[in-house]
Design a protein that fits this description.
four-stranded mixed sheet; 2 helices; single chain; 4 strands; 39% helix; alpha+beta; 107 residues; elongated
Length: 107
């Protein structure tokens, strides 16, 4: 059974963010990659820029073989869209890495 943890830095937790992360994680689990754990850190820059805040999403996915580490940063004027975009991009990269690894293991 794999575990998902979500941590927030410089922003409050959100049911909408947690739901999006959980759905994205569930999609990764369906790939059959034997994920042992997935640590997600969602961070907002601590200072506002003229154009808004920057958001970073970091994933550390533990599975057999080397772990997968992904980080995506975005920053624009609409924070909700930025957080969602960073989450989407980070999980898309992780998905590609898992699929690439599986294709190398099963030629």
């Amino acid at each position: 059974m794999s575990g998902l943890t979500i941590a927030y830095r410089n922003l409050d937790s959100s049911p909408a963010i947690e739901q999006q992360v959980s759905e994205r994680f569930a999609d990764l689990e369906k790939l059959g990659a034997r994920i042992e754990s997935c640590d997600v850190v969602i961070e907002a820059s601590d200072r506002r820029r003229v154009s808004g805040r920057e958001f970073a999403v970091r994933l550390k996915i533990a599975l057999p073989g080397p772990d997968i580490d992904v980080e995506r940063r975005v920053g624009r004027s609409e924070p909700a869209a930025d957080v969602s975009q960073a989450i989407r991009e980070a999980f898309d990269v992780a998905r590609r890495e898992i699929l690439e690894r599986k294709s190398r293991q099963n030629p």
